[in-house]
Design a protein that fits this description.
Blueprint lengths: L4 E7 L19 E8 L2 E7 L1 H9 L2
The chain binds zinc ion.
Zinc ion binds next to helix 1.
Length: 59
């Protein structure tokens, strides 16, 4: 995934009954980041408030 391009960050609204976790620290996720990985594909990674700042600063 080294060539993925950061796309955008948006507020993550959990609409399911299952809690979504931050992929970095495992806390409850409140934000999600979209990455363009080419070929019209994108992936979503979810983060908590703290970890999303690291994603932002790495743009
Ligand atoms: Zn986190």
């Amino acid at each position: 995934m080294s060539n993925k391009q950061f796309s955008l960050i948006r507020n993550f609204v959990n609409t399911s009954s299952r809690a979504r976790q931050c992929i970095t620290c495992g806390s409850v996720a409140t934000q999600e980041a979209l990455f363009d990985v080419g070929n019209g594909m994108s992936i979503i990674e979810r983060y908590c408030d703290l970890c999303i700042k690291n994603v932002n600063s790495a743009r």
